[in-house]
């Protein structure tokens, strides 16, 4: 499973020109809707697990403990970047969620036929309806994003850096510099490469930039937002 290493940034009016100047190539634009799910007590997000359905395909973002990788604590990118393991296999998502939600329960939730043939590959949201209802997981955030994507190659370095410019339908614009690191790959190298890309784009400031979810919850579910802040998730 890949680890997504990402730094968010504020989009200024010249960002397209800056990306072109450093050699980034526009690889397309798309529009998509995201739905995020959790229990009424926020059992998933308060543990930093994010269950998302994007245009019919499911993904679970899982926190990556910092001590898992050899990361320099004084790296600027370390404090500005997020790291999540991405699970896209529906049977694996169900198994992981069952385990996460069972933690702390006297009577853990069992695996109710987790692995079925209909789970193979990308799944339509409807196939999860019953499974979600059984676990009292409901949609707490839903929004649409217009995205313009770029790729940036670096001489002598394998792979590319992805840069996405996102405009959410609730009036928030944010940029993302992202590298997907294979399982067991070099997270420190990814952090350094993101930092170099940020420098090339003239990004400054030592504070994290809010993502779409931060702003959405601030505006639409301040109680959930405050609980995530108190738990040091956001």
Structure, explained:
About 25% of the residues lie in helices and about 35% in strands. It contains seven helices and eight strands. It is of the alpha+beta class. A hairpin with a 4-residue loop joins β7 (about 155-170) and β8.
Overall, the morphology is: globular
For the record, give the distance between the C-alpha atoms at the N and C termini, rounded to a whole number. Answer: 24 Å
List the quaternary state of the chains: single chain
Biggest sheet strand order reads 1-5-4-3-2-6-7-8
How many separate helices? 7
Number of strands: 8
- How much helicity do the residues have? 25-40%
Segments where pLDDT lies below 50 for 5+ residues? 106-125
